[in-house]
Every structure is written in C-alpha cells, then in structure tokens.
Design goal:
The chain is of the alpha+beta class. It has a domain at 223-325: Enolase-like, domain 1, CATH 3.30.390. It is built from 13 helices and twelve strands. The strands form three sheets. The protein has a five-stranded antiparallel β-sheet with strand order 4-5-8-6-7. A four-stranded antiparallel β-sheet has the order 9-10-11-12, with helices on both faces. A hairpin with a 2-residue loop joins β6 (173-178) and β7. The termini are far apart. Bound molecules: flavin-adenine dinucleotide (FAD).
Length: 326
C-alpha cells in the first residue's frame, strides 16, 4: 500500500529546487526503483518531484574536450546506443546494457541508477534492520548469499548499480543542484560506507538532485581498455553477484595507468587499490594476473553463505585481465 503523496512536475531547475524544499519531498526520475521503495516503505515521501518536465534540458549526451557530459535524465537505453559513449567509454555502455531488462533501461535514468536503494531482502522486507534505524543487520546469521564480502562492518548490503562502478573507473564527476546552488563532486566521493552511516547510501541530500554526469577525457595510452563485466545468477534481469569495471591505459600488455572497480562486492562501488597496485606499470603476464586476482580478494571477509564470491571474483578478474592483455 502507498501512503498518499502530492505530485509536482516543475518545468525549470529552479522550480524543482523550490519544490524539493518541502519536507517529505523526494526526487522522481524514471520511477523504476522509487515506486517500489514507496510501496516497501523504505522511502516515505509526502511529495514526489518529477524531473520529467526538465527532460529537454537534462537529457542527452554531449561530447566535449575528449570527455562526455551526460544529462541526469538520460535513459540507460540512450547511453547503450550512443555512438560517443561507445567510442570513448565502451565500458559505460556495457554497464548500462547490463541493467535489468529493456523496459527498465527505457525508463531508468542514469541519475536514478546511481541513487537507487540497495536490494537487501531484510531492508526491503518487514525487518527493522540497522539501515532503517533498527538494532542489527539481519544478514549476519541470516540469508546472506547475495551480501557483501568487503566493506561491511555493521550492515552488509551490496551497492546495486551497474553504471556507478563503470563511472567510478572513469573518474566521473556529478553536478548536483540544491538550495545552496550547484556543486560538483567526484562520484568516488559521494558513496557512504555503513560504518560511517548505515542509514545513508550517498552524501546527496534529500533536497538536492543530480543534473549532469561528466566523464573526463581518459588517460592516453597507445590503447585504452574500458570494459564492464557482470556475473549474475540468471540471464534475465538480475543484480551483480560479481562485477568488474576496468579503465586502463595500456601499452601493449603493459598497464600504464587506470582504475579497477568491483561491483557486487561491497556496500559501495569498490575501487580495488590492491588490484590496481598489482598491475600498475607491469605487463599482464599470467603470473601478474594471478597475483592481481589474489590481491583483489586479500581483504575479503565472507559471511556464512557467500564465500563462493571469492573464487567467483578471482576467476572473473583473471578472465578480464587476460582480455585486457590480448
Ligand atoms: C526488476 C528490476 C531489475 C533491476 N535491475 C537492475 C540491474 O540489473 N542493475 C541496476 O543497476 N539497476 C537495476 N534496477 C534498478 C533501477 O530500476 C534502475 O537502476 C534505474 O536506472 C533507476 O532509475 P530511475 O530513473 O527509474 O530512478 P527512480 O526510481 O526515479 O529513482 C531511484 C532513486 O534515485 C533518486 N533519484 C532519481 N533521480 C535523481 C536525481 N536526478 N538526482 C538525485 N537522486 C535521484 C530517487 O529519489 C530514488 O531514491 C532494477 C530495478 C527493477 C525494478
């Protein structure tokens, strides 16, 4: 059951800022996650502020200075099909393509994808878990086969978005609009670990909204290797059991610069500094690849039912680095 709510559809960015000032107002993008969150009472809104009236202003992909500006309301389908995204950062197009089903990609926006709520069945179910202000995380000692193996501490969700790890690998920045004006944050800096605040996923305030995602020009090597790999239990729509976003400047088999980000591993898109250190400046030989796979999982702390993720991640890292070397 839904609690009653008002609906506003502002036509300008400043009207949207104004509409979000009322307490209990929340941003409505494509609604593909938000509506379920209202039904499951993990978001209690008295007013939905739809950004759909700003579509002409906040949709689309523009190429600029070797990078890309993606409007917050750009649909995932648009990103999958966009030639500039495919030419400059194919890993982002691959990540958007991995989201849900065609219907969800048609409806879902890039900003909503970044800001969606986690999928833990205790959080989404009728449990007063720590993420809802309750005393404990029910995944500890419960059904934790899809929960995190890194970064858990007091709550063991996994970050659900496929595009966030890809954007983090690309060092993307978000333009965020709110009552105090506009600010720009690296996507890497917005995610909040449960040990810092188990009730928030990002530092974006309730009365703020993303207006654009900027992907900077990527480091130039002789070759830029940008991919997103997602392993899931089913071929139809499903969230990542494990995933890896790579954005690597390569010279032959040697890694010159870049980033590696895990999905399905942690409560935030997990930049694996250990994996990066294991490959940086090195040729991707079988030995280096093996050591990188071990390094990526060195700090993993599985729960009672998700230890399978460790060999899954190691195998996936080996396969993806072997492809980068090829
Ligand atoms: C069956 C199913 C399968 C799915 N599978 C996947 C999957 O495989 N991978 C994946 O990544 N996602 C998946 N999703 C999640 C989700 O539908 C998509 O991520 C979608 O991109 C969300 O975008 P939206 O515009 O519909 O967001 P909304 O539902 O409108 O919003 C989601 C959240 O983001 C906030 N928000 C929306 N726009 C903004 C903005 N501009 N600024 C700040 N906050 C904003 C909302 O307030 C809300 O909290 C799935 C969802 C369903 C229902």
């Amino acid at each position: 059951m839904f609690a009653p709510f008002e609906y506003a559809q502002p036509k300008t960015v400043s009207d949207a800022v104004e509409a979000l000032k009322s307490e209990g107002a929340v941003v409505h993008g494509g609604g593909s996650d938000l509506i379920t969150c209202l039904r499951e009472h993990i978001i209690n809104a008295t007013k939905l502020v739809s950004l759909s009236g700003l579509a002409s202003e906040l949709s689309g992909v523009t190429a600029a200075n070797g990078g890309l500006r993606i409007g917050a309301l750009t649909t995932l389908t648009h990103i999958v099909d966009n030639p500039d995204v495919n030419a400059r950062c194919p890993g982002l197009a691959q990540a958007a393509h991995e989201v849900g089903s065609p219907q969800l990609r048609n409806q879902g926006t890039i900003a909503g994808n970044i800001c969606q709520k986690p999928r833990c069945w205790y959080y989404r179910g009728e449990f007063n878990c720590i993420r809802k202000g309750g005393p404990i995380c029910y995944a500890v000692g419960g059904e934790n086969q899809f929960h995190c193996i890194l970064g858990g501490a007091n709550c063991y969700i996994v970050h659900p978005s496929d595009t966030s790890p890809a954007l983090l690998a690309l060092d993307a920045k978000l333009t965020i609009m709110g009552p105090g004006g506009t600010r720009t944050d690296k996507i890497e800096d917005i995610f909040i670990l449960p040990e810092d605040d188990p009730m928030r996923e990002t530092s974006i305030e309730r009365d703020e909204f993303i207006t654009a995602v900027d992907v900077p020009a990527q480091p130039k090597g002789p070759r830029f290797h940008n991919t997103y790999r997602k392993v899931r239990a089913r071929r139809s729509w499903d969230f990542a059991l494990s995933g890896l976003a790579l954005a690597l400047a390569m010279d032959g088999k040697r890694v010159i610069a870049g980033r590696a980000v895990l999905s399905g591993a942690a409560p935030v898109p997990w930049r694996s500094h250990e994996l990066e250190q294991a490959i940086m400046g090195k040729e991707l030989t079988p030995d280096v690849i093996d050591k990188a796979a071990e390094a990526a999982m060195a700090d993993a702390e599985p729960m009672s039912k998700n230890a399978y993720k460790i060999p899954l991640f190691k195998g996936m890292v080996r396969e993806e680095l072997a492809k980068a070397a090829a």
